[in-house]
Write a structure and sequence with these properties.
Keywords: Signal
Protein name: Lysozyme inhibitor LprI-like N-terminal domain-containing protein
Radius of gyration: 17 Å
CATH architecture: Up-down Bundle
InterPro entries: LprI-like_N (IPR009739)
Distance between the termini: 51 Å
Largest sheet: none
CATH topology: Substrate Binding Domain Of Dnak, Chain:A, Domain 2
Helix content: over 70%
Shape: elongated
Strand content: under 5%
Order of helices and strands: HHHHH
CATH class: Mainly Alpha
Number of domains: 1
C-alpha cells in the first residue's frame, strides 16, 4: 500500500462513526474486514438474545404484534441504510468494512432500544 493510499484509508476510517470503537486489529484490509464482520455477528447475536424478552414485555400490553412489525421494518431500514453508507465505496476493498461497521452500529443501537422495553 502506498503512503497516499494508507493516508486515504486513515482519513476514511476516521470519518466512519464508531470504527475506532470496534477496534479491529489487522494489518491487511481482509483482516480488518473479517474483524468488522465478526463484530457485527456478535452484535446480531446480542440482539437475537434480547429479542424474546422484548417481545414478551411487549406482549404484556398487547404490543407484540406491533413490535414484530416494527422489527421487520427496522431490518429493512438497517439493510437499506447500510447499503447506502457502503455504496459510496462500491468496488473498493474498504466497502465490506464500512458495510459491516454500519450493520454493527445500527444493530447495537437497536439492541439498546429493545432493552428499553424491558421492565426495570
Amino acid at each position: 500500500m502506498t503512503a497516499r493510499a494508507a493516508a486515504a484509508v486513515l482519513l476514511i476510517a476516521a470519518a466512519l462513526p464508531g470504527l475506532a470503537r470496534a477496534a479491529c486489529p489487522g494489518n491487511t484490509q481482509i483482516e480488518m474486514n473479517d474483524c468488522a464482520a465478526s463484530a457485527y455477528r456478535n452484535a446480531d447475536a446480542q440482539l437475537n438474545a434480547i429479542w424474546p424478552a422484548a417481545r414478551a414485555a411487549a406482549a404484556n400490553w398487547g404490543g407484540d404484534g406491533m413490535l414484530l412489525d416494527a422489527q421487520r421494518k427496522w431490518i429493512a431500514f438497517r439493510d437499506a441504510a447500510c447499503a447506502v453508507e457502503a455504496g459510496q465505496y462500491q468496488g473498493g476493498s474498504i466497502q465490506p468494512l464500512v458495510h459491516a461497521e454500519c450493520l454493527r452500529r445500527l444493530t447495537e443501537q437497536r439492541t439498546a432500544d429493545l432493552r428499553g422495553l424491558l421492565p426495570l
